[in-house]
């Protein structure tokens, strides 16, 4: 099982600790505030009060032994950058960092952060896509050009199979799952029958997904 360390217990970091707890993942939760450390003591395997931008402190925590370290205090850009830099230099396997803005993102990218997270921006995109289209109920950006979306099947798709629709050939995107009620069919076979109201989980280039949404659904 993975061992994870979350450095910074603000809204984002604290929420991560709680989710890891529900998933049974061993978590070290660290913050410079003793109040925040106490707030999450019931959810983390270990909680420690410390300033993690100090390299000696990180070594004392045995941070190099963790599979993943999340630097979640994006508001303090200097501390975020120094901590991420120390973690990479110490050879931590995976370092994920929360970015406050595009400049912060570029610096984290330069020093080798393995994944850079923009929680507010990512959530704003998901909400905006949902508002912009009645068909799209969720949107996850994979890269600048590729995404996964959940699209509600309309009358056009009712009682048709994936063979009938031939979505990959016509639109260039792929259906990787179909949710019908509470059941989710992952990697559906070509002759599965789609019903109105089913949720199609579609992956592909944004251009192709938009075309499928406009014409095919």
Automatic annotation (TrEMBL):
Annotated Gene3D superfamilies: NAD(P)-binding Rossmann-like Domain (3.40.50.720), Regulator of K+ conductance, C-terminal domain (3.30.70.1450)
Domain RCK N-terminal residues, every copy: 1-117
InterPro entries according to UniProt: NAD(P)-bd_dom_sf, RCK_C, RCK_C_sf, RCK_N, Trk_Ktr_HKT_K-transport
Pfam families per record: TrkA_C (PF02080), TrkA_N (PF02254)
Organism superkingdom: Bacteria
MF GO annotations: monoatomic cation transmembrane transporter activity
Database matches in PROSITE patterns: RCK_C, RCK_N
Domain RCK C-terminal, chain residue ranges per copy: 134-217
Gene Ontology biological process terms in this record: potassium ion transport
Name under which the protein is recorded: TrkA family potassium uptake protein
Species lineage: Bacteria, Bacillati, Bacillota, Bacilli, Bacillales
């Amino acid at each position: 099982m993975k061992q994870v360390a979350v450095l910074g217990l603000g809204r984002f970091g604290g929420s991560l600790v709680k989710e890891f707890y529900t998933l049974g993942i061993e978590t070290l939760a660290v913050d410079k505030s003793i109040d925040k450390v106490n707030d999450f003591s019931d959810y983390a395997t270990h909680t420690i009060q410390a300033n993690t931008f100090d390299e000696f402190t990180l070594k004392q925590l045995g941070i190099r032994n963790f599979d993943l370290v999340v630097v979640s205090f994006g508001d303090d850009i200097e501390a975020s950058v120094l901590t991420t830099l120390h973690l990479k230099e110490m050879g931590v396997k995976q370092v994920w960092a929360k970015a406050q803005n595009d400049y912060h993102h570029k610096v984290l990218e330069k020093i080798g952060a393995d994944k850079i997270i923009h929680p507010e921006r990512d959530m704003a995109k998901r909400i905006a896509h949902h508002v912009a289209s009645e068909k799209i109920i969720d949107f996850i950006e994979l890269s600048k050009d590729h995404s996964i979306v959940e699209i509600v099947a309309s009358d056009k798709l009712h009682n048709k199979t994936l063979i009938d629709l031939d979505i990959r050939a016509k639109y260039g995107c792929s259906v990787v799952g179909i949710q019908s009620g509470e059941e989710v069919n992952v990697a559906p076979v070509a002759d599965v029958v789609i019903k109105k109201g089913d949720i199609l989980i579609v992956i592909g280039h944004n251009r192709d997904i938009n075309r499928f949404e406009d014409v095919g659904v």
